[in-house]
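[Q] Does anyone have a clean structure-token version of this?
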Amino acid sequence: MVRSRRGFYSENGKRQILVVDDETINRELLTMMLQEDYDVLTAADGNEALAIAHTHAQTLSLILLDLFMPGLHGLQVLRMLQENSETAGIPAVVVTADQKAEVDSLMMGAADFIPKPYPQREVVLARVLHTIELYEDRHLIQSTERDPLTGLYTKEYFFRYATEYDHHHPEEETDAIVVNVNHFRMINERYGRAYGDDVLRRIGQKVREIVHHNGGIVCRREGDAFLIYCPALNDYQTILENAVVGLSGEEGNRDRVRLRMGIYRHADHSIDIERRFDCAQMAADQLRNSFGNAVGYYDSKLHETELYNEQLLEDFNTALQKRQFHVYYQPKFDVRPEKPVLASAEALVRWEHPVLGMISPAVFIPLFESNGLITRLDHYVWREAVAQIADWKRRFGRTIPVSVNVSRIDTYDPSMIDYLCAVMKEYDLPTEDLLLEITESAYTQDSQRIVSVAERLRELGFRVEMDDFGSGYSSLNMITTLSFDALKLDMYFVRNVFRERNNIRMLEIIVDIARYLNVLIIAEGVETEEQMKILREKGCDIVQGYYFSKPLPADKFERFLTEKGDC
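[A] Here you go.
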């Protein structure tokens, strides 16, 4: 165990040395040699030496230890110092006339050996200083080598040792493994940081046991991520099940702590070690929202997806510059009148790649969100939508409000609101012409921030819609405290309403909530006339979906404007 120390120096600013010798003359000789440079303590026997070492364990830099003393032999003292966690890290230099004792002393853990009679003062000082500096450097290295919470390697040393492992075992097949805690942030929030830290310590201990049994090395990378590099293993499911035993506390809470494991089997030694763990992390991330499957493998399919995603990221700037992103518009109809009337539209982005063809937003939007590019894309879409609203208003004499997505990441941009206001001003449009959709999950992930942003936007005249409502993130208590103008029912919720007719009662409850809050109800994903009529009968205000139209390019959407919204 690495000794914890408050500092390397005593109160008078000098390093502290303990001289242990039963001969007074020897203690005095060494004190005279050392006292100019060091704060010297002395002990006349082994028991006194142990007592002083424990008292000054935090400041002692070195012990000069005689071997032949009454009572405890010097080697006994050395062994007892090594066995105690408080004193184990204090280097001891054996000082004796018995030249044959040198090997035994070094084997017992002595840092060096000084013979009697003493050599010249300069030799003694050089040996003392060299030993102290060597141990201080080792202590500093060890303090940065280990994660203070779990005692595992830090990421930097882990990658260094993994590289050395490859160097010494070039032909051995190895696996790169990442272990994550599912929704660890929520564990911290629900049970407290102390509980979360205890979970991480216990995982670290269990993972260390697995590695010790099978060979290899382990580290805590950051947060809830643990890395394992070891010879290729089998049956990772059992290993993961053993790792989670006892983590969830009392019976009845077995699912409180759930782990997921990503594995890059038989890792390619020709690629960078960190890259191998990126591959394993990708396999773990595939399981982020999977309750049943906890072990994922990096394979050729994931590799192809990775290459595909890398190309999309590389082509993003060019796509913006060459306007390869096209904004489509899906009409939203007010179904409260007997004959539905065009009320607004939703802007939906499509990417027409010159080589890859039309790319689904389900592919590139999550990718851009995870890589910090979504804000730039959203700004592009906002400007396109505002310009289109202004163009329709000029050419058709009608204002068709358009709703655009605002991601949770956008709300962290301090210039977001200023940007929206500047675009509306540039096209001479009132803020109420642009509808802002913020997902229900965004409200719950950072409710204080999102509510603050939404309130500010509404104060400026923007209308805010809570998108994907019904996907199961928020509580009724939370809904009553949030700031928005419309609830937009999640597409899959709407489909389930009609798949399981018992869910119609849930629809009625949500409509009642909307009425209580005095906000509109919008339903998306409506595909049939029957669905539209039932939604209208139950109190939905606005409906969109393939029953009316799929998302259309602006020129084709204009058919609805020329028909004045009739259907």
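[Q] Thanks! Anything notable?
[A] Residues 486 and 520 are 4 Å apart (CA to CA).
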